[in-house]
């Protein structure tokens, strides 16, 4: 069986304290600027935010990604498992989702981001870095990255959608 991991950006839920998000982003910015490891404070804030209880009202973005996943499941071959992960703010992370599938015996994983266009740090830097870490941690697992998307096919989809 193969697994697809649909990776959404992630968003803080509406009821999370803004100071928590600001502090996390500040620590992340400092870490990226100095190319250092996550501090314990950043790791703790990230974990707390990703585990924050969510509802459709407090996190409509997450609900949208879950709805896309449900639609995608209907189109994938029967023997393909689909799980959802998030780049930031929401759990599970890409690393957690893939590691869980590997622990379940999976050896073929395709990572599919919801970010459609080139130029974004998530799809061009962060997700590829996470994939390289996963490949190093799981050398017997095939991890593919289904990106960048063919912009002509995306344009065709948008035009067809406008005609419905």
Briefly, what is this?
The chain is of the alpha/beta class.
Tell me what you see in this structure:
Helix 1 crosses helix 2 and helix 4 runs parallel beside helix 5. Strand 3, helix 5 and strand 4 form a beta-alpha-beta unit. The chain is globular. Helix content is 51%, strand content 15%. A four-stranded parallel β-sheet has the order 2-1-3-4, with helices on both faces. The model has no long low-confidence stretch (mean pLDDT 96). By secondary structure, it is of the alpha/beta class. It is built from six helices and four strands. It folds into two domains: 119 residues, Rossmann fold; 35 residues, no CATH class.
Strand order of the largest sheet: 2-1-3-4
Low-confidence regions:
none
Q: Supply the helix-strand structural class.
A: alpha/beta
Integer average pLDDT:
96
Number of strands: 4
The number of helical elements comes to 6
CATH-defined architecture of the largest domain = 3-Layer(aba) Sandwich
Task: Please report the distance between the alpha carbons of the first and last residues.
Answer: 35 Å
3D shape? globular
Main sheet makeup: 4 strands, parallel
Quaternary: single chain
Order of helices and strands: EHHHEHEHEH
Helix content range:
40-55%
User: What is the CATH class of the largest domain?
Assistant: Alpha Beta
